C-alpha cells in the first residue's frame, strides 16, 4: 500500500500495523487461537502521525454468525510505544483492557464455530490525540472504540484469517 498524495507532499507515511507472526491476509497460527495457547500475537506499528498521544487497539470478527464479535481492546498505550509483545493480552500485563464479547477483560483469540469456514480477524490500531481515554477498563470493546472515534488521528489495520480444524 503506497502513501497517499497528501502524505507524499508532506513527507509523512501513513500509520502501519504488522505482526511478525502472520502476514496481512494470512492464516493466524493456532497458538494465538482461543483453542490453542490463547496468546495475543506480537504486533508492531510505525509512522504515527504528529500529535499522537496514545494508541488503542481492537480485534474483531465480522464473520461471526451473530454479527461482529469483538475479541480484544487495549487502550491508553503511551505514544512512545511501537508495538505489543506476544502475550500482552493476558490479564495483569500492565495494559488497560476492555471487556470482550466472551466477557473477559483480556485477549481471547479466534474460535469460529466448527464448519463455519474461514473468519477474518481485523486488528485495528488507532492513534489518538489524548493521553487517556475517559472510559472504565471494564467497558465493552465497541463502547471503547466509539469513545475513541472523536480523538482518532489515524487508523491502521491488519487482517488475519482463521478456520477451526484447518492446519
UniProtKB/TrEMBL annotation:
Transmembrane segments: none annotated. Pfam families: PBP (PF01161). Signal peptide: none annotated. SUPFAM superfamilies: PEBP-like. It comes from the Bacteria. Residues 24-34 have a biased composition (Basic and acidic residues). Coiled coil: none annotated. InterPro entries: PEBP (IPR008914), PEBP-like_sf (IPR036610), YbhB_YbcL/LppC-like (IPR005247). CDD domains: PEBP_bact_arch. Residues 1-47 are annotated as: Disordered. PANTHER family: PEBP (PHOSPHATIDYLETHANOLAMINE-BINDING PROTEIN) FAMILY PROTEIN, UNCHARACTERIZED PROTEIN YBCL-RELATED. This is PEBP family protein.
Amino acid at each position: 500500500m503506497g502513501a497517499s498524495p497528501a502524505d507524499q507532499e508532506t513527507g509523512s507515511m501513513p500509520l502501519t500495523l504488522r505482526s511478525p507472526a502472520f502476514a496481512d491476509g494470512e492464516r493466524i497460527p493456532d497458538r494465538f487461537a482461543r483453542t490453542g495457547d490463547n496468546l495475543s500475537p506480537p504486533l508492531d506499528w510505525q509512522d504515527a502521525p504528529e500529535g499522537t498521544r496514545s494508541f488503542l487497539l481492537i480485534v474483531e470478527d465480522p464473520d461471526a454468525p451473530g454479527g461482529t464479535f469483538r475479541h480484544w481492546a487495549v487502550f491508553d498505550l503511551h505514544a512512545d510505544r511501537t508495538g505489543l509483545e506476544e502475550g500482552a493480552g493476558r490479564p495483569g500485563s500492565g495494559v488497560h483492557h476492555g471487556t470482550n464479547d466472551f466477557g473477559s477483560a483480556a485477549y481471547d483469540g479466534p474460535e469460529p464455530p466448527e464448519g463455519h469456514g474461514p473468519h477474518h480477524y481485523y486488528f485495528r490500531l488507532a492513534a489518538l490525540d489524548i493521553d487517556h481515554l475517559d472510559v472504565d477498563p471494564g467497558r465493552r470493546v465497541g463502547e471503547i472504540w466509539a469513545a475513541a472515534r472523536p480523538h482518532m488521528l489515524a487508523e491502521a489495520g491488519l487482517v488475519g484469517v482463521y478456520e477451526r480444524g484447518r492446519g
